[in-house]
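Reader question, answered in our methods column.
A reader sent in the components of a multi-part assembly and asked whether the whole thing could be modeled at once rather than chain by chain. We filled in our standard form and ran it. Here is what they sent:
COMPLEX SIZE: two components
ENTRIES:
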Amino acid sequence: MLIEQLINGLTLGSIYAIVALGFTLVFGVLGIINMAHGEIFMFGAFIGVMITAMFDAPLWVAFGASILITAILGFFLETFALRPLRNKPGVSHLAPLISTIGVSIFLENLSHHLFGSGNKPFEAPFAQVSFQVGSITVYLVQIVIFVISIILMVALSIWLGKTKAGKALRATAENLETASLLGVDTKRIITMTVIIASAIGGIAGILVGMAFNSVNPQMGLSMGLKGLAIIILGGMGNVRGAMAGGLILGLAETFVVVYGDSGYKDAIAFLAIIVILLIRPQGLFGKKITT
Amino acid sequence: MLAELFNPYYLQIGCFILINIILALSVYVPLSTGQLSLASAGFMGLGAYTSALLTIHFDLPILVGIIAGTLIAGLIGILIGLPTLRLQGVYLAIVTLGFGEVIRVVFINWESLTNGSVGISGIPHIGREILKTLKGFGFNPQSMGLQNNQFIFLSIFVLLLIIAIFLVWFFRRQHYSRVGRAYAAIKLDEKAAESMGINITYYKVLAFTQGALLAGFAGSIYAHVLAYISPADFSYHRAVDILVFTVFGGSEVIWGPVFGAIFLTFLPEVLRFISEYRYMIYGLMIIILMAVRPQGLIDVNIINWIKSKKRSKRGVTHGSGSEKSM
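And here is the structure of the entire assembly that came back:
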């Protein structure tokens, strides 16, 4: 029982971690909160549903399609909502935040019109496959989700740490002007970051569809808010913090459902950030903020 | 004659416009210190539920309920504001957003008190109470040529109009006072303001609390005008609605949120056929506004332009400039 719940919590937590990764990448490089990330994630989930349900395509095609679509959405987000505000005199630091809220409202309501407002089931071909290990039941879906998210996190860490593009991205995050003086094409790096973050959101969308077997236009909002809570929990712009924060939240929510009141599940994330801001404002893994 | 003029439907839209003006102010005031608060919907809900529950369960007069609702929202505003305002703007936006969600989740789950997601109905209605009181004094709306229904909405409208005008006047005065100058200084540069001897924590918490009080007040009025509230009334979408009023109208001068609230409450009523696409249009509007005119439609330049127009007109007709300012 306990171990089963632990597995459930880890599955949920690894999804949260991936959602939070998208937020933290954009915040790290641009210093802005991308409020539209939740909706891009939701679009990814819906594209997955459409591809698997309507065209009977295998799962990897669904992954490919939703990565493609969310990457395109990320490109549009950067071109229309973020770039016009950058380096413009007289624009307050809240402008990009409000602008991405605009994108999120637009995308949420667009999806109402495109996909309908109800729940859509997500049929993963191996949804019911499970193993019995002793007295514990483990679903194949859970393993797939966990493995994919681990691969994603490791790949991202290696990419950020070892490759030239990853180093350029970190340099841009450190200091945009200096990076550009040293020959980094910061404009390209920024666009690339938003696109990659969005594509990661798309992957997370399909994983959530598989995990909960349902997809609806409102899920972007609730998942987006939790993603925000996680990056505050783990420390803004901190990749490792996002992963750890996601896992902590996933486990906490699962155990509250089991041992407490399931209705308050969605409030935990925010109670946690209020507490964390009181005790350790920079987040669990963040660097000290000087205000 | 009067009866045709005071169509209850128009009066009700008028009431919503006035409530929305107060709500828009609740975002404008914290924003005038550079803090983006998305908690207005949450504070509005706190005010609404407090007032509704007090008047229903304890038979308190509506006035007491409204004052209690406003004060509770303000108190929670101080409690939330103190720890979070030490942090930078983005944190505040997220925490206030999260706070709104926590409030909503509590409203849904505390079923014994709030009746869950079904909501509370049968909340005492301000207009009916006014009518009942006046009837106690032997007043009959028919003597003014009005139906009961018309009188009810007319009385709310007039009451709200007076309150809204008072609030706009108050915050305009405040803008030119010591407090308002402190707000403006903090918005421009916190460090510079602090080194000039302005207690920035005090003024930031003050602005945030003023916003919370306004939202709580608007919420308790809302409960007593609609007579029915549910947690869905105070969701993220309400927060976005309120934010759009201020962002669209402009957050530099007080006429911005006022104009935004009037225009955007009126627009969906006039353009019924696009109401289905309302939020999509809102979304596009925010994106375009931020890219083209991040200060909102009405800014200082427009106000000055209107002022100079007025002045030159007066100069022609009366031969002398008026001392009165806008």
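What stands out: Chain A touches chain B through 49 residues (CB under 8 Å). Chain A has eleven helices and four strands.
Send us your own complexes using the same form.
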